[in-house]
Recover the amino acids of this structure.
């Protein structure tokens, strides 16, 4: 599949390995940004995309930044809808205990393209029975 991309920085998201599902997104900054513990910031990528109807781009945290420095996405997974044409920006939060410096060109998140379907609701008074039923939140044990 081809997706239209405008890049203000020359960066082009790419798969790092043959089996990668996500493409790295890089920060596009005029100067480094210091993210203090507990601080949230939108970090620009300089990227604009045109997704086909029926697809979304999911923006996800990079596991290395999360485990090593406590840097993650404030909304866990962000969705870029097919009709959005603005710049992709990454909402980062520092859950660590030290300042974290984000430099221009640094890999800050990953993006996965996913197919979806829109649904319509069918209002009913009951649902079909299953073996699991309403069990959830640890009902099967540890």
């Amino acid at each position: 599949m081809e997706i239209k991309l405008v890049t203000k920085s020359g960066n082009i998201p790419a798969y790092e390995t043959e089996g990668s599902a996500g493409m790295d997104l890089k920060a596009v900054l005029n100067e480094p940004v210091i993210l203090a513990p507990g601080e949230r910031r939108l970090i620009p990528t300089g990227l604009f995309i045109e997704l086909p109807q029926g697809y979304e781009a999911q923006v996800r945290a990079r596991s290395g930044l999360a485990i090593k420095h406590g840097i993650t996405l404030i909304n866990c997974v962000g969705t870029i809808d097919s009709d959005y044409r603005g710049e992709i920006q990454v909402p980062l939060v520092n859950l660590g205990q030290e300042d974290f410096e984000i430099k221009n060109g640094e890999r800050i998140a990953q993006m996965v393209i996913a197919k979806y379907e829109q649904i319509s609701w069918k209002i009913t008074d009951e649902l079909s029975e299953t073996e699991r039923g309403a069990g959830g939140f640890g009902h099967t044990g540890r």
In short: The chain has a mean pLDDT of 94. Helices lie at 63-69. The chain is about 5% helix and 35% strand. The two ends are 41 Å apart (CA to CA).
